[in-house]
Amino acid sequence: MASTPRAKTFKSPTKTPSNIYRKSYLSPSSTSHTPQTPETHTPLRRSARHVSRKIDLGNDPIDAPGNDPIEGMNLIRKRERAPRKPTTDVVPSKSKKTETPKKKKKIDSFTPVSPIRSETIKKTKKKKRVYYNKVEFDETEFEIGDDVYVKRREDSNSDEEEDPEIEDCQICFKSDTNIMIECDDCLGGFHLKCLKPPLKEVPEGDWICQFCEVKKSGQSQTLDLPKPPEGKKLARTMREKLLSGDLWAARIDKLWKEVDDGVYWIRARWYMIPEETVSGRQPHNLKRELYLTNDFADIEMECILRHCSVKCPKEFSKASNDGDDVFLCEYEYDVHWRSFKRLAELADGDSDSDQEWNGRKEEEVDDSDEEMELDDEVLKSKRGGLTSARGGANSRKGRFFGVEKVGMKLIPEHVRCHKQSELEKAKATLLLATRPKSLPCRSKEMEEITSFIKGSISDDQCLGRCMYIHGVPGTGKTISVLSVMKNLKAEVEEGSVSPYCFVEINGLKLASPENIYSVIYEALSGHRVGWKKALQCLNERFAEGKRIGKEDEKPCILLIDELDLLVTRNQSVLYNILDWPTKPNSKLVVLGIANTMDLPEKLLPRISSRMGIQRLCFGPYNHTQLQEIISTRLNGIDAFEKTAIEFASRKVAAISGDARRALEICRRAAEVADHRLNTNKSAKNQLVIMADVEAAIQEMFQAPHIQVMKSVSKLSKIFLTAMVHELYKTGMAETTFDRVATTVSSICLTNGEAFPGWDILLKIGCDLGECRIILCEPGEKHRLQKLQLNFPSDDVAFALKDNKDLPWLANYL
Amino acid sequence: MGKETPAEKSLNLIRGRLCDPSYVFRPLSASSDSNYSKLKFIVSTSITEGCNNSMLLLGPRGSGKAAVLDLGVGDLLEQFPDSVSVIRLNGLLHSDDNCAFKEIAKQLCMEHHLLFSKMASFDDNSQFIIAMLRACGLAHKTIIFVLDEFDMFAQGKQRLLYSLLDAMQSVTSQAVVVGISSRLDADQLLEKRVRSRFSHRKFLFLPPSREELDGLFVHLLSLPADSGFPSGYVSRFNDKIKNLTSDTRFKDILKTLFNANSTVNSFLKFIFCAVSLMNLESGLLSLENFKAALSSMQRQPKLEAVRDCSVLELYLLVCMRRLEVKEQSSYNFISVMKEYKAIHDSFHTSDYYAQNVCLRAFEHLRERQVICYAENRGQSQTGEYRLQKLLISASELHQGMRSHACCPAILLKLLDH
């Protein structure tokens, strides 16, 4: 969760600031003193500023006199200025004017001056470091993962004292307690009452000021912004400096302190404004948008100015009162390949469970050799691309060289600017890849799995146990287990459950059943070995109780999906995996998932006895459950009629009870409705109706052979009729081409059709066999070819009975 | 050698059209209800909305499944040049799972200019594919997997199908899996786990109607007026085509053709034959060209084999037929020779040959596949002792002998009794 940035102005020391910075660069061994408060300030003034800032950080609207808080405001990409208490503290203006530096758009010049020097210094000396997760520096707490403003040059310190946290109104040039609104185009702040006409409330949705509105309409007459009164300099906030290229933003990747000189450093991951990319600012870029790059640098903490807040799109939409230092970051920019990728949301990805148990340590002493090696790698990747000596992109699992090349040169416009309709939202939420927030209709089963696992790994006596979970496809077996494991992980973080390691394996994704040993061993130890070596190591661990590291003391939960594919001829793989939990001190819990109910009975007796009696059956969903599953996903989206959902639920429940099938039918119905509404744009009803669900069901469950039989050529129909006739005459399903041809000949003779010839008739039969309407032997057998209907003869009769061209076919069917 | 005549230029133009699937199927796909529109809509939805889809194209061979898909994917590649990459697999080549995964990784590397390693194992390739799907999904790129001969992938353990469809439901990716098969029961072949993950969007490709085929005929054979042809020739050629379509005899020719096979591919072959027989002097298509094309489309190779037999071979065929009539379902050369000798003794025919001459004629019949060995076992035996079977029927033999030029009359009499 991104918190409100704790802002504090960097106070000027007694000495000239440039002297201190130059001194620290030239001789890093010298100790940097904490800057002192200037003595020229009176105590009353300092106290007033401190009190004022404290109140401002709270953003408490109750303290604002005469302003009632606006309740229930639904602000989209709107940042309202919270009312602030007036301050009598006036910063004296500087007589010198700072020249605005030119924008540097080239990537080569992106690297700031400070990190180059620090890297040069760091390369020459290997030093001990103390790593931190959290550091308090200049009375401000900085943490790994925070976003901060970073100075661009040394002499930019002169602007520092002028940094106001409160933006001035663009019209009256005052900052007071009144509510302000921000223009979405120029990002300027305006008082509500200063506008013409004045606004009484903050409007919903996007808002553009009158100056930008005139500019956008393309009128020849330009409405100029009012100019500030004489003597008052227009103060720029840090946000404005960042977006105009005078500052940098970075994310803190690492925090450490040099042991020798006590200097604090961070590893910064840079953000970029759109102007600095090769593509420049694209039409769909928002004003407050940044890109996260893969460019890193080590900088001293003194270069950090203060916090800012970079948010993902969802959080950005909700950020309405977070102040001026809020930015949007949705894409990652690769500075080497100049391509964009969407940032993978952290909620989707499952972090490695081993790293979670380490927890957060206050400090950690690490050797700098490893750090130097990492720096070399970063520097190497900066200089050039990949070399062929590294091997192919697919040559090593888990490390794919060049995958970062896959990226868009330009972010497509339809992705950013397109506003989703209700149907598109429904389609997105009905995807099988979309993870619902809750898992309906499986609470009882999840409780049973939870109690099984908790009972197995509770306290220090870990019992080795097995559980077999079965059910037909699409009933939520795997997703229930994964959901239980996710909940357990949350409980481990809270501390109510002891740590464990979790391995998930799918039997259908293994190259061979024996490969499961390698996969398990790699998941537990991180080493890649052949399966025989892995089997030996796993035997040592589970059967003989040998353990190497501290990690091996934790219980191991093994989830094997598609368990029935591990059955080999002698079933040794299953035997080993199910035998390990029965050993003392193995601390292994096995969860097996398959579709068949009677898999244990099919196995050898010594394997089924080790599988135990712990069974869990996932029955097919009934129509009420399917309806609840679909309605839960469509919660808040008004795209489906209620009868349409019920119709789809009942249809799938009658056939298979497969949740995947139900979701796919609803999604296909939404697609059919979307296609229908695209072709017929004057339709008033925008919902998915029952006819769309019927069309989707018709397509998914249709019998294509009947339609094909209705549309085959005339002689093919006669051929099929002859086959049905032969079936009725002889009573045997199988017949030969000789008999069929004789029957066709007599049928054609009787009804006045021209007999095509035996070779043409043979080809017609082979074509029908290719469609699998009939089953036939290869055509080279000619007269002796064996033929058989692949579908029931009633289907053939149904398809051919009402033929218009050949009405006499009904006599033979 | 002089300049190319207008007849030759028009011939080349029409042949080029017939060999271009997009030219053939573009007018057939104009309707909004056509498979082309539905296909394109689903794939473009995957591109614009960032979702996964899977579908199955079913239809008889020659009905335009792959051609219509190529048409739709080609249009989308023009519309979204950076957002689409196509991976093509064929069941006849890549039905083995290891081979298929390697081929997918190879094509992914080629599409995105990565370095491909042939030494990668199954695990490496499958993990690489999942990583690429994730990376392409984050980059708003759609990968279209075209699985031709889909039923060949549905044999064995179906690891490829399971991995692709499972990756599409658990990874944030944008992928479309398109299966193409001429087997109408291809979705029944799927294993239950794969069937549950498959979306069962099935598009059926049926032969077009007569009106559509007539329109296609005019579309394929009309010369454009703004080309380099002489204007008089163009109008004469197009008038000839128009007269042909309204001719009753031409309609009968088409009717006979469509009675046997009404797919687009068969129609194209027919037109290609007719165009190839065009008279280069007049430069116009005539009814005789289409008649000759129909004759070549409706050949009967077994009947022609019987018609081209020698008299001795006919005697042997009649002897085999007589043995079958006597309920002797299996025979070898020795049995046939006995029957041949009996016929000679009974009817005192003048055409009697020695045994080694008859053996050579017998082997000649087997080479032309008029007869074949009854079983594959016992290959160590000499040719004259192995059991044989007659492949043509009695009516075919009768018809062939009647159309034979110098068939003795005694053979027809022998065949009837």
Structural commentary:
Chain A has 813 residues and is an alpha/beta fold. Among the domains of chain A are: 132-153 and 237-340, SH3 type barrels; 167-224, 2-Layer Sandwich (Herpes Virus-1); 441-616, Rossmann fold; 621-699, Helicase, Ruva Protein, domain 3; 702-809, Winged helix-like DNA-binding domain superfamily/Winged helix DNA-binding domain (Arc Repressor Mutant, subunit A), CATH 1.10.10. Helices cover 35% and strands 15% of the residues of chain A. In chain A, the strands form 5 sheets. Chain A has a 6-stranded mixed β-barrel with strand order 4-7-8-9-11-10. A 5-stranded parallel β-sheet of chain A has the order 15-16-17-14-18, sandwiched between helices. Chain A has a 3-stranded antiparallel β-sheet with strand order 19-21-20. In chain A, a hairpin with a 2-residue loop joins strand 2 (134-137) and strand 3 (140-143). In chain A, helix 10 (422-429) runs antiparallel to helix 20 and helix 15 packs parallel to helix 17 (605-611). The longest helix of chain A is centred in the last third of the chain and has 21 residues, at 659-679. The termini of chain A are far apart. The model of chain A is unreliable at 1-125, 156-161 and 346-390 (pLDDT under 50). Chain B has 417 residues and is α/β, with parallel strands linked by helices. Chain B folds into 3 domains: 31-204, Rossmann fold (3-Layer(aba) Sandwich), CATH 3.40.50; 209-298, no CATH class; 303-416, Winged helix-like DNA-binding domain superfamily/Winged helix DNA-binding domain (Arc Repressor Mutant, subunit A). Chain B is 57% helix and 9% strand. Chain B contains 21 helices and 7 strands. Chain B has helices at residues 6-18, 21-25, 35-49, 65-79, 91-94, 97-111, 122-138, 150-153, 159-170, 192-197, 210-221, 231-245, 248-260, 264-276, 287-297, 301-307, 311-325, 333-347, 355-367, 394-402, 409-416, and strands at residues 53-58, 84-90, 142-148, 175-181, 201-204, 371-373, 388-390. In chain B, the strands form 2 sheets. Chain B has a 5-stranded parallel β-sheet with strand order 2-3-4-1-5, with helices on both faces. In chain B, helix 14 crosses helix 15 (287-297). The longest helix of chain B has 17 residues, at 122-138. Chain B is flat, with a radius of gyration of 29 Å. Chain B starts with 5 loop residues before the first helix and ends with a helix. The mean pLDDT of chain B is 86. At the A-B interface, strand 12, helix 10, helix 20, helix 21 and helix 22 of A face helix 3, helix 6, helix 7, helix 9 and helix 10 of B.
